Amino acid sequence: MEFNTEKLNLSSEHDLAQQVGWKCPSNIAIVKYWGKYGMQLPKNPSISFTLNNAHTTTQVKTTPKSSTANFSFEFSYNNEPKPEFHPKIESFFERILPFCPYVSQVHFIINSLNSFPHSTGIASSASAMSALAICMVDLEDKWFQPFSNETQKLRKASFLARLGSGSACRSLYPHAALWGQTAEIESSSNEFAIPITVHENFKNYCDHILIVSSEEKEVSSTAGHSLMNNHPEADNRYKTANENIKSLLDILKGGDFESFCQLSEAEADQLHLLMRTSNPPYNLLHENTLIILEKIKQYRKESDVPICYTLDAGPNVHVMFPNKFKSECERFINNELKSLCENGRIIEDYMGLGPKNMFT
Ligand code: DP6
């Protein structure tokens, strides 16, 4: 990927003062990214669905910078200063600096807000980092107009988001995204995600997130990725993931629900099996998670409704089903699964259309 290395004209205070704002969704991986190398590069390609309701809204204002530090920013969450978020943002700025030299020339005033409460155990890094990344790219666009088209702009946003958190690079596109090089798609890359088109059957696909536990995870995703480095099953995992990418691309093109359910659950199960067999081993699933997974499989078998689950690196369950089966699935979730969630908590979401500019 090529980068604009232009710097800002610091004599123009007016140009330095800008304001941008973006709402960016979270995403849920169907084929999982688990294992990385170098600077946030994935060991295997992954495919995710873009969500809609779980999102972060971020506004960034720039003002002239007075400090001599490499970069300078202030961060608030819902207009309240939040120093505990500083290390993640610092490391984001540190990493993007070589690709965005203007970052060292202005002071950033950042304010963010998530649509979902902090205490749900839902990782906000995908939506938060993608929102911040697209704000940076929007500023770059205002200052230098370096992008020949929208694709270039989103690719750079995805590239920068990846440096903040790997899964964040997949949050920039409508419906679904592919991150990581695969022989199946020529323009695929380990450095940024690209959009993929899905069959009508998958548009508006529902994802109800069952909050089984909101406690902080014992092992972070970043620590989990590094345990893949010496994992005895690592090579098998990367081989399976590549095969699953090929199958999922076919499924998303053809619209086959049954194959989708099989693949989605196999990926989630394998992710958690890898955790249980790593050195040291660990388990992030709760007793209620296991009961919920069994109930979903049972209901699918009995009803023929293509409902299935996936999991991210935690105990909460993403229950997925086509929009046309919404009423029976919601009835099943309310009658059978809700009581197994912490305080009956469920976040209802569905496949969304990607980032939204707050100023247009
Ligand atoms: C299990 O993107 O959170 O959700 O790159 O270290 O920030 P970092 O990791 P992160 O890992 C996500 C892991 C996953 C699978 C996925 O989203 O593909």
Describe, in plain words, how this protein is organized in 3D:
This protein is of the alpha+beta class. It has nine helices and 14 strands. It has helices at 13-16, 86-96, 125-144, 150-164, 221-227, 234-254, 257-276, 287-303, 326-337; strands spanning 18-31, 36-37, 41-42, 46-64, 72-77, 80-81, 106-114, 176-179, 193-196, 206-210, 308-311, 317-321, 346-350, 356-357. The strands form three sheets. Strands 1, 4, 5, 6, 7, 8, 9 and 14 form an eight-stranded mixed beta sheet that branches. It has a four-stranded antiparallel beta sheet with strand order 11-12-10-13. Strands 2-3 form a two-stranded antiparallel sheet. Strand 5 and strand 6 form a beta hairpin. The longest helix has 21 residues, at 234-254. It is globular, with a radius of gyration of 20 Å. The two termini are 28 Å apart. The model has no long low-confidence stretch (mean pLDDT 95). The structure holds ligand DP6. Ligand DP6 binds at residues 29, 32-34, 40, 46, 123, 125, 165-167, 221-222, 225, 271, 312-313.
Principal-axes shape call:
globular
Which value, in Å, is the CA radius of gyration? 20 Å
Number of helices: 9
Which whole number gives the mean pLDDT? Answer: 95
Residue stretches low in confidence (pLDDT < 50, at least 5 long) are: none
Can you count the beta strands?
Answer: 14
Distance between the termini: 28 Å
Helix content range of the residues, please? Answer: 25-40%
Which molecules are bound besides the chains? ligand DP6
